[in-house]
Specification:
It contains nine helices and eight strands. The protein is an alpha/beta fold. The chain has one domain.
């Protein structure tokens, strides 16, 4: 049998923000296969911890650091649930840099400029598009951070739920997005975090309040 490989997953929130470089170095040191950094979403048992969430500026700085580390190479595979990583990579590509980018949710690879257009189809938030979440009681949710019940496996088969869920269909059609995400140049490669939009705005199609582009546009319009 193959030896077990460590796969370290960490939620990113204010209390451990400055520790991320050391955590990645530790993951490399112990021979972990991958390091996964999750967006902190104030939902579930953390639904009252809004003050622990990163600001859009802090999130942008962290993602820029991680993108640079991914591109330069790391002994551990670095993955993310933050859809904005694809947008950051595209911006770097436009500046002529050959860089790793998030072509699909939870996947980072180095690509040429010719392959960037693929991100329009597979990039960004994967909730209800590339994956979903299953609860022990059979309930199906768009993702682990988005507690919206779209069906139960005790009553319907998974294929039927996956193909016909009205919520999943909304997430697969980004022309349905609202606010800044609806008019963003990076709508199709990012789409914003639908779980964060729901947690802050109680609207799964609204702007992602954790994105710096949302903050900038809303500031200009205020």
């Amino acid at each position: 049998a193959e030896p077990a490989r460590d796969r370290d997953a960490f939620g990113r929130f204010l209390d451990n923000l400055k520790e991320i470089p050391e955590i990645i170095e530790l993951a490399e040191k112990i021979g972990a296969e991958r390091f996964t950094y999750f967006n902190f979403i104030p939902t579930g048992r953390g639904k009252k911890l809004y003050d622990k969430d990163l600001s859009p500026e802090e999130r942008e700085e962290l993602l820029s650091y991680l993108l640079d580390r991914i591109t330069k190479g790391s002994k551990v595979t670095i993955l993310t649930t933050a859809p904005q990583l694809a947008r950051l990579a595209i911006e770097c590509q436009r500046k002529g840099k050959e860089i790793a980018m998030s072509m699909a949710h939870m996947q980072t690879i180095k690509v040429s400029k010719k392959a960037v257009s693929l991100a329009d189809f597979i990039g960004g938030c994967g909730a209800g598009r590339l994956y979903c979440s299953l609860s022990p009681n059979g309930d199906v949710h768009p993702c682990v951070f988005l507690p919206i019940n779209v069906g139960n496996l005790k009553n319907r088969n998974f294929k039927e739920i996956w193909l016909t869920s009205p919520v999943f269909k909304l997430f697969r059609d980004r022309s349905k997005l609202k606010g800044v995400c609806a008019i963003c140049d990076f709508r199709d490669i990012c789409g914003g975090c639908r779980a964060r939009a729901n947690a802050y705005n109680s609207d799964i199609l609204s702007s992602d309040p954790g994105c710096i582009l949302t903050t900038k546009r809303e500031t200009r319009n205020s």
